[in-house]
């Protein structure tokens, strides 16, 4: 069974790590259909204690690799990435670079995961700027939106790369043929947008992608396209806005409950649509957000990820390895050499 | 009663104009508490036919000013503003410039309203770039977000002006003392953001505004601040995303109804929280979005505005005149001369 894919998991990354993470590792390892092995990276003592708390005293169903340092959730990212050479993050990503594991999953400090991955794995050949891709719920299944936070300022060339990476990810992982790519902007016409999107529009029109032009803010949830391309500033604001809708809705319902007795008697029925909404809006459900464009597989999870989300992230990492997503991206970006010198 | 404020209303601006608009003009004029008079500007024949359809054959409760041309909702905005000198929009805004009316309301082509207002009324003294301000629902009442679409590319100086204008609007119209101003960005720390917000952060920190620093996408609905400042690209995308939430939620409910019989029997109870959500998310409820920074009062309504929304927009225009919002903005921007030469 040595040809099994090995996925490293950062035991120390997450709001309450290693709680939930160790449990996620167990869930993932015990999955009968698993075509991967989990390698848990982190403080061996704390992992051991968490295993005991979960009632697993004998051999756990995964390998443990010790790492002595921990990067905190609010630590300055670039500095932590540079200085903490023995953090679980650094150790895990180094193992991936050395080929000891095939992919890595972390729910830690997003900035630190990104910086360490860039530093350790490096850029994928042909990629100028890696991007974080996130799933958004839509009326037609999920859409992939990128970048959602890796690059606050972008050039048109970067948006083109995001489009290629998102399109390839969507065809191989979501199994959609010839994914429809939309450029997030503020008007449908090619002449509408900001300086960045106007140039990007031209690059995308001339590409081999299934580019459907500009899409607007209201097109995302409607599912007008499979891949939504934007800079990391806009993408991050839209993602966090979307994540906040659920609690805003609960706020509205609480207000309503205070006002209406009739409503109170039937309130339990609300749990059904709210559950679907929670599921649709909670991107942790999907497992995590891939950092596309680094020379390796790296999935970034939410700091509050449930064990199930951790398991899903491990499965996603394993699928990305198996589907050779990075090979396809390299291939897809070969054409883009013509873009050298573009704004 | 000649000291009554006169508000012009574009009869031809809106998806089904003059339907809804004429009705809104009647609603507004018949309001017993009205401290304004309505002047309806547009094609006299079509207005007359709409009045007849509404059963008003004798004298309508407002003045009608004829304008022979109509700007369509999808017409190229800048061209229409330049060429159609006898559009209802151009005629109305010219009347405002000449002091025959005190404010103007239009639910027409947003780009054309903006372009014509800039061309006809000009910039308010001290303002480099006017901005459209929109209300967003929050857990603590509405917040004012600007710019939501007038400026796709901004300089820090513009964001500073938006902050001053939004802050003054919020104190005089929403009657909030010392409004909390937040800069929309992708991290709370002053070092997080894009090139634009990093410089803007410094300008805002040094100002006399009640600046609370960066706010993120999830802070908007939470009501972390009263005024959210951003460039018109990000603001427009967030606004349109927010507007699309309601129909996405109806989609989720329909899916749920298909699946669950139990849910179906209690579905009518859902109308209560959904009604509050619709109200909270539908910015037409608030009447319209003021174009701040032009030398006059101009309210932009949604093309789908109901008669009630039109009435509310007229009331808002009248309040802006009465509260002398523009005078206060000029005063507030006097300090900003020190910004000359800033990026």
What is the helix fraction of residues of chain A, given as a range? 40-55%
Mean pLDDT of chain A equals: 90
Series of secondary-structure elements of chain A, N-terminal to C-terminal: EHEHEHHEHEEHEHEHEHHHHEEHH
| % residues in beta strands of chain A | 15-25%
Biggest pleated sheet of chain A: 11 strands, mixed
Strand tally of chain A, please? 11
CATH second-level architecture of the largest domain in chain A: 3-Layer(aba) Sandwich
Globally, the shape of chain A reads globular
- The CATH homologous superfamily of the largest domain in chain A corresponds to Isopropylmalate Dehydrogenase
What does the radius of gyration of chain A come to?
21 Å
CATH class descriptor of the largest domain in chain A? Alpha Beta
CATH topology of the largest domain in chain A: Isopropylmalate Dehydrogenase
Contiguous low-pLDDT stretches of chain A (5 residues minimum) are: none
